[in-house]
Amino acid sequence: MLGYVVADRIAVVMNVEEKANDFPGFVLPAGKWKLIGDNGGFDHLKGLKRKEGMSQVVGGKLLPLQLPAFGFKVWMKE
User: Fold this and answer.
1) CA separation (Å) from 55 to 8, 16, 17, 18?
2) Alpha-carbon distance 38 to 20, whole Å?
3) Do the beta carbons of residue 16 and residue 71 sit within 8 Å?
4) In the predicted model, is pLDDT for residue 51 greater than 90?
5) Of 7, 10, 46, 60, which is most buried with the most CB atoms under 10 A?
6) What CATH number should be reported for the domain whose range is 2-77?
7) Which helix (H) or strand (E) holds 10?
8) With contact defined as beta carbons under 8 Å apart, do 54 and 5 qualify?
9) Beta bridge partners of 62
10) Residue 23's CB: how many other CB atoms inside 10 A?
11) What pLDDT, in 10s, does the model give residues 21-46?
12) Gap between the Cα atoms of 17 and 6, Å rounded
Protein backbone atom coordinates (compact mmCIF):
# COMPACT_ATOMS: atom_id res chain seq x y z
CA MET A 1 0.00 0.00 0.00
CA LEU A 2 1.23 3.45 -0.90
CA GLY A 3 -0.36 6.86 -0.41
CA TYR A 4 0.93 10.36 -1.00
CA VAL A 5 -0.19 13.96 -1.53
CA VAL A 6 1.44 16.24 -4.12
CA ALA A 7 1.52 20.02 -3.56
CA ASP A 8 -1.50 19.82 -1.21
CA ARG A 9 -3.67 19.38 -4.35
CA ILE A 10 -3.46 15.81 -5.69
CA ALA A 11 -3.75 12.67 -3.54
CA VAL A 12 -2.93 9.15 -4.71
CA VAL A 13 -3.43 5.81 -2.96
CA MET A 14 -2.57 2.47 -4.50
CA ASN A 15 -2.48 -1.19 -3.63
CA VAL A 16 0.41 -2.93 -5.36
CA GLU A 17 -0.41 -6.39 -4.01
CA GLU A 18 -2.21 -9.31 -5.66
CA LYS A 19 -4.99 -9.22 -3.05
CA ALA A 20 -7.42 -6.62 -1.74
CA ASN A 21 -6.13 -4.60 1.21
CA ASP A 22 -7.36 -2.10 3.75
CA PHE A 23 -5.64 1.26 3.88
CA PRO A 24 -6.24 2.00 7.57
CA GLY A 25 -4.77 5.45 8.10
CA PHE A 26 -4.89 7.85 5.15
CA VAL A 27 -5.71 11.48 5.99
CA LEU A 28 -6.21 14.04 3.21
CA PRO A 29 -5.35 17.66 3.98
CA ALA A 30 -8.32 19.82 5.02
CA GLY A 31 -10.68 20.83 2.23
CA LYS A 32 -13.07 19.29 -0.29
CA TRP A 33 -11.70 16.59 -2.60
CA LYS A 34 -13.20 14.96 -5.68
CA LEU A 35 -12.29 11.57 -7.06
CA ILE A 36 -10.75 12.03 -10.51
CA GLY A 37 -9.19 8.63 -11.20
CA ASP A 38 -9.34 4.95 -10.39
CA ASN A 39 -9.04 1.61 -12.16
CA GLY A 40 -12.24 2.46 -14.05
CA GLY A 41 -10.89 5.63 -15.67
CA PHE A 42 -9.96 9.30 -15.25
CA ASP A 43 -11.89 12.56 -15.55
CA HIS A 44 -10.05 15.50 -14.01
CA LEU A 45 -12.68 17.98 -15.23
CA LYS A 46 -15.94 16.48 -13.94
CA GLY A 47 -14.63 13.87 -11.52
CA LEU A 48 -15.89 10.30 -11.20
CA LYS A 49 -19.17 9.15 -9.69
CA ARG A 50 -18.78 5.95 -7.70
CA LYS A 51 -21.30 4.07 -5.54
CA GLU A 52 -18.91 3.39 -2.65
CA GLY A 53 -19.17 6.98 -1.40
CA MET A 54 -15.62 8.13 -2.20
CA SER A 55 -16.48 10.46 -5.10
CA GLN A 56 -16.56 13.52 -2.83
CA VAL A 57 -14.66 13.50 0.46
CA VAL A 58 -13.76 16.07 3.10
CA GLY A 59 -10.15 16.16 4.23
CA GLY A 60 -8.77 16.62 7.70
CA LYS A 61 -10.03 13.30 9.03
CA LEU A 62 -9.22 9.62 8.74
CA LEU A 63 -10.30 8.15 5.40
CA PRO A 64 -10.66 4.37 5.73
CA LEU A 65 -10.16 2.72 2.35
CA GLN A 66 -10.26 -0.76 0.94
CA LEU A 67 -8.61 -1.19 -2.43
CA PRO A 68 -8.82 -4.20 -4.74
CA ALA A 69 -5.69 -5.97 -5.95
CA PHE A 70 -3.61 -3.50 -7.97
CA GLY A 71 -6.26 -0.84 -7.30
CA PHE A 72 -5.71 2.89 -7.07
CA LYS A 73 -7.62 6.12 -6.45
CA VAL A 74 -6.69 9.72 -7.24
CA TRP A 75 -8.40 12.78 -5.74
CA MET A 76 -8.02 16.45 -6.62
CA LYS A 77 -8.64 19.26 -4.15
CA GLU A 78 -11.49 21.52 -5.24
Assistant:
1) 18, 22, 23, 24
2) 15
3) no
4) no
5) 10
6) 2.60.40
7) strand 10-14
8) no
9) 27
10) 18
11) 998 888 999 999 999 999 999 999 99
12) 23
